[in-house]
Design brief:
2 domains; alpha/beta; seven-stranded mixed β-sheet; two-stranded antiparallel sheet; Rossmann fold; disordered N terminus; 9 strands
Length: 315
Amino acid sequence: MTDGVDDESFAHDPVMCDEIVEMFGPVPPGVVVDATLGGGGHADALLRARRDLDLVGIDQDDTAIAAAGRRLTAHGDRVTLRRARFDGLGIALDELGIESVVGVLFDLGVSSPQFDRADRGFSYRADGPLDMRMDASNDLTAADLVNDAEAGELASILRRYADERHAGRIARAIVAARPVSGTAELAEIVRNAIPAATRRTGGHPAKRTFQALRIAVNRELDVIEPALTQAIELLVPTGRGAVLSYHSGEDRIVKRVLRDNERTAVGPRHMPVTAPATGAIRLIFRNGRKPSSEEIERNPRAASARLRAFEKVAA
């Protein structure tokens, strides 16, 4: 047990694990970065499938680093762990003297073990503090936003990060109920603010509000583009990257960054190419892939996952 977390609490099924292992199957021997290590499930599977790979695991959550470290012990010195946010992967690798890698994996969003621990404040189903920090050293918490932000700012957060159509009503209800002391109280405020007809459909009425606050606290969408850009730069030719996203805001950013970096020929259509091709990657498949029905049945939280993958091309 470390910081109140044991191996079992971080023992969850890594989403689309077989597909991830398949994506990295063709990469050359070298270093793979799991930039969102979590409990180490994907990392463990990759290391077991490819004995010629070493792994650098990065996570901003101390409890994840501790649990993954125990899980990956059997792989010995093939594993190096660093505490950092995933947009700091370039700095982490530089400190290790690693100039290039053969693979980078991003599994975005909150992990099941984080969500299941009431004391982390991510869940609307169990009472806990209004925290929601993936990195406990960060100053900003969900309590700061819930109790200090103006109604207009709260509504903007709910619209931007969760497409919440009742954002204004929810924000006004939160402000009127201040001070709000915990997740159960916040969930009830949100439930009461939403029209009764809406409450009867679409899952838990507070789901979108909690999602939006979590994303805002951790600046999750802000760091995706710089992290992906670093990954593309660090990959060797024929190296690969894979990204698992869980809501439309994440997936839109991932899709745009990959499209902007995709290798394309320059010149008029149906005419000889007159300039070098631009872009550093090719997409391994055009559209995001979804988990199988069997996986969703086994792990319902995988239902919203989308996998996108790319390969670095020669200059």
